[in-house]
Amino acid sequence: MATRSPAIAPAPKVNAGPIARVPAPAVDPSDNAATRTAIFAGGCFWGVQGVFQHVEGVTGAVSGYSGGKKADAEYGAVGSGTTGHAEAVQVTYDPRKVSYGTLLRIFFAVVADPTTLNRQGPDRGTQYRTAIFPTTPEQKATATAYIAQLGAAKVWKAPIVTKVEPNKGFFAAEKYHQDFLTRKPDYPYIVYNDLPKVEALRVAFPQHFRKQAVTVYKIG
């Protein structure tokens, strides 16, 4: 079964450069739908879920697996790095309150370092790659344009390796992975790697930050 580093070293940087340098997407079409879903892979899903659960306009965030087959969507198998899956989070949101482009900006600004190939913080392997799995043609176009925009702006010194990948389906992870950051804020991995990202969200995007996390299960 896959294991996590205890992450006893100092916390890695949230991204390679000041958050303020990550611009808003130039392409971000309006959407009057009542609800949409988006799928992001940004390393360990505990932190990705934890950040998006604090975004105003997000109504749900579920940890899971994307990029591979349903039969392989199991933590032990995914941890082998041979299934094609990445640890991912499916975000349900109200596009009238928070746009897909804003979710992308938060993803690149505070969730993941888009310049490290198959690695985020202490975690290594293809299952920890950064990737975007669009659920609509419009999301694909927006994400593709935004990656090109960020690359042209040279926000990071190293090239962006995050890919827009085909959406082959999202498969929820085991129950014990859900709401991990909210349930175990004192867990060393969370303290060193993920709580700084939630704080970065609060500081950099106060207009999009919600203090009370939206969770999969009732906490407490």
TrEMBL record:
SUPFAM superfamilies: Peptide methionine sulfoxide reductase. It catalyses: L-methionyl-[protein] + [thioredoxin]-disulfide + H2O = L-methionyl-(S)-S-oxide-[protein] + [thioredoxin]-dithiol; [thioredoxin]-disulfide + L-methionine + H2O = L-methionine (S)-S-oxide + [thioredoxin]-dithiol. One of its GO terms (molecular function) is peptide-methionine (S)-S-oxide reductase activity. Has an important function as a repair enzyme for proteins that have been inactivated by oxidation. Catalyzes the reversible oxidation-reduction of methionine sulfoxide in proteins to methionine. It is an enzyme of class 1 (oxidoreductase). Residues 37-187 form the Peptide methionine sulphoxide reductase MsrA domain. This is Peptide methionine sulfoxide reductase MsrA. InterPro entries: Met_Sox_Rdtase_MsrA_dom, Met_Sox_Rdtase_MsrA_sf. Belongs to the MsrA Met sulfoxide reductase family. Gene3D superfamilies: Peptide methionine sulphoxide reductase MsrA. It comes from the Bacteria. Keywords: Oxidoreductase. Its EC number is 1.8.4.11.
